[in-house]
């Protein structure tokens, strides 16, 4: 997801996306114990979570 798309979302939508991505990350991590080939998905999910959190922290700094 592009950072510009994330910036257009509300804080609530961003938090919901983070929760969803973290749940997906957990599911993939659990499957990775028995299966292989999921590494690229984990990397992309971690990066997306970081992008969402970056936008939230930018907004918090602007409010302060």
Characterization of this structure:
By secondary structure, the protein is mainly α. The protein has one domain (3-63). Helix content is 81%, strand content 0%. α2 (11-32) packs antiparallel against α3 (39-63). The radius of gyration is 14 Å and the shape is elongated.
Task: Provide a compact summary of the structure.
The protein contains 3 helices and no strands.
Domain unit count = 1
- Number of distinct helices: 3
The gross shape turns out to be elongated
Distance between the termini: 27 Å
Strand content: under 5%
Q: Taking Cα atoms only, what radius of gyration do you get, to the nearest Å? A: 14 Å
Number of strands: 0
The ordered string of helix (H) and strand (E) elements is HHH
Show unreliable segments: none
Q: Mean of residue pLDDT?
A: 90
What class would the helix/strand composition place it in? mainly alpha
Report helical residue fraction: over 70%
Describe the largest sheet: none
Please tag this protein with its features:
mainly alpha; 64 residues; elongated
How would you summarize the topology of this molecule?
Blueprint: H1 3-7, H2 11-32, H3 39-63
Helix pairs in contact: 2-3
């Amino acid at each position: 997801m592009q950072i510009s798309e994330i910036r257009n979302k509300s804080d609530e939508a961003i938090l919901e996306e983070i929760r969803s991505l973290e749940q997906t990350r957990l599911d993939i991590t659990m499957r990775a114990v028995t299966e292989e080939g999921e590494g690229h998905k984990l990397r992309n999910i971690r990066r997306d979570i970081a992008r969402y959190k970056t936008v939230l922290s930018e907004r918090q700094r602007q409010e302060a």
